[in-house]
Design brief:
One of its GO terms (cellular component) is membrane. The chain is mainly α and about 280 residues long. The protein is built from 14 helices and two strands, in the order ααααββαααααααααα.
Amino acid sequence: MTIDLIILGLVLLFAVVGAMTGAARQIAHMVALAVAWFVSRRLGPILGPRMAEALGGTPLLIGTLAASLLLFLVLLVAVRYVLTVLLRRLLGARDSDRQGVDGVLGFVLGGLKVGIIAYVALSALVFVEKNVVVAGKKLGLSPKDSVSFELARRYNAFELTQFAAVRDMVAVTRVMTHPEQARDLAEDPAYKALKQDPRYQRALSDKRLRAAIERGDTQEVLRSNLVMQLLQDPEFVARLGAVAHAADSDDGPPRKLKPRAQPPPRDPPADSERSPDPR
């Protein structure tokens, strides 16, 4: 709970600072956050291999994550500074009649800004903790009794966005081993392109990776450099998503109607059991 109290204190502190500095500067900060997140998602996978080499040949997953975080921080500071200067020149001094509303907006945006930054940082720590193994053991970076870390585990920013395609890859590979579903998707252009992709086939030829996919172990799949290289290709990711969506839509078998229950046989009337008249 200590880390939760620290985060809450930082949110309140910067909310008060936001109320003092005004909404204009906080808007600049929020725009900088959005730009930094968008660009780091796009360029992080591209710079990941170089970052992995610079870190001494670490796995591509760690290089991509480190490059994304570094880009995020650099762009956040740079864009925020530029926008703050521009807004000061455009808006000038604040009108005294609008200082109340400006202060309230600054309070809300200032706290929200720190909350988003904390969410990204905690998501990165949780992602590293779940997917990085050192000397056969996972890194224990997060306290178990923290509400903030528990939310980051359940709704991890990197798992939901940048590395979400690994779930599609697991689903599509399972479809390929399912005869009926594979037959239904045989004429799908995206499915054909995936089956003919030599990089994908090379990844599936790895027995350890194939076993992890069959188990649905996305953490083990993400540790593969072959998979990380595939997920850096936007066209490959788009094909994965298309095939996974098509498989989901065709996954449910047609519902069978239950046969109508037959009424129980009626007992024959008493006079029907009379013995035939000997006459």
